Amino acid sequence: MVTAESGSAGLGVTFAETRPWYEQWHLVRQQLADVEETLANRREVDRVKRVIETFFIACTHLGDWISQDPSTKALKTEVEHLPKDDPSWRICRAVANTSKHHTRNGGITARIQSISFAEHGTTATFAWTEHKIVQTEDALVLAKRCMDRWERFLTENNLQPL
User: Fold this and answer.
1) Mean pLDDT over residues 123-134, rounded?
2) Which of 38, 91, 118, 149 is within CB 3.0–4.6 Å of 42 for a Cys-Cys bond?
3) Taken in order 133, 139, 143, 145, is the CA torsion positive or negative?
4) pLDDT score, position 5
5) C-alpha closest to that of 61 among 42, 87, 79
6) Using the 8-state DSSP alphabet, how is residue 73 labeled?
């Protein structure tokens, strides 16, 4: 809950101690917009890499927010099954974990393999190995599939972000 107080000198905002799951949802949506804007308009390798990895970390952490929010805590099991039920989600989580840790000790290692700049924008490609098979995918395509999966999850569970 957020309360606003106005005074003669300006406006102040006070945040409640509890944080609702949709606070993270709005962050993830903004970070996807940042990925799209960065790929369309930027040419800095470090920025492109950082913005993409940050999106995937926030995207996977949304599950934690849903699992910990008292209003949605009952969905913890459903959240935990996402990586098992959806191949894109498995890779999304692998990208997040690979970017957070120097070295993975188990699980899928998924990282940005390449970033290419062209007239029409920037593309980034992920590579990962699963069952000894190397696979690749466009980072924006994967990001959008992960967002689509979250949107389906929210709809299936009647969750409405404020």
Assistant:
1) 90
2) 38
3) negative
4) 64
5) 79
6) G
